[in-house]
Write a structure and sequence with these properties.
Layout lengths: L16 E3 L6 E2 L1 H14 L6 H6 L5 H12 L3 H19 L1 E2 L3 H9 L4 E4 L4 H11 L7 E3 L12 H10 L7 E4 L2 H9 L3 E5 L8 E3 L5 H12 L1
Helix pairs in contact: 1-4, 3-4, 4-6
């Protein structure tokens, strides 16, 4: 397992940083909710508050399977509708999470960085382009680039291989328990982001948290 730590700024600098995208670098929750609302409306029903709470935290295949069962439609066509809708929504209204752009710019000047996302390639590319991050993060992996999705470790192992770093020396940044599990099982040190405990080695509420800023400043001086 990667290095454990209790105080961010005392940890040594990682060899690389691998970010999740949706909910970590990009605020796409509203995009997902809008797409789901439109899909339900096209079927003369509405997406409930419970659906809005449960569905956005799932992978597209999971959401597609659930909706295919609910509406008695093929999973493949449901997934295409979701992917197309999300690609359009993210390109139109997706926004970087607070502190994301500044942090990525700073880290890109210090070490290799990558993105390991559960989103389809089309959605991931649109999200990074919308944020202006495409050129800064040349190594990106999407759900279709690995056999097993998070919480399996495949995507983080693949990202570290692409960066040519040992997972035990790299840092993953995640906002979901499934993502944290994926990175932990890959042997990485994991920083959780968000208000709820995720089981990561350490956690901040937002990417512009002062403790995280101080930690990165510490790396720059090493």
């Amino acid at each position: 397992m990667g290095r454990k730590y209790s105080t961010l700024w005392t940890a040594p600098a990682p060899s690389a940083v691998v970010f999740d995208c949706d909910g970590t670098l990009m605020d796409t929750v509203t995009c997902i909710q809008d797409v789901l609302d439109a899909m339900f409306a096209r079927r003369a029903t509405s997406c409930s508050d419970a659906d809005h709470t449960w569905l956005p935290g799932r992978s597209l295949p999971e959401i597609s399977s659930m909706m295919a069962t609910r509406f008695n439609e093929p999973v493949a066509s449901m997934e295409r509708e979701l992917t197309d809708g999300l690609s359009d929504a993210v390109a139109a209204t997706g926004r970087p999470m607070p502190g994301a752009l500044k942090l990525v710019h700073r880290l890109a000047s210090l070490m290799p960085i990558a993105v390991a996302s559960s989103a389809p390639r089309a959605v991931l590319d649109k999200a990074l382009a919308q944020a202006g991050l495409t050129a800064l993060i040349p190594v990106t992996l999407s759900a279709g680039d690995v056999e097993h999705a998070k919480p399996a470790p495949d995507i983080y192992l693949a990202a570290c291989a692409r960066l040519d770093v040992d997972p035990a020396t790299a840092l993953a940044v995640e906002n979901t328990a499934a993502g944290v599990r994926s990175a932990l099982d890959a042997g990485m040190t994991v920083l959780g982001v968000g208000p709820q405990p995720l089981g990561a080695h350490a956690q901040v509420t937002r990417l512009d948290d002062l403790a995280l800023t101080a930690w990165v400043d510490h790396w720059a001086r090493m």
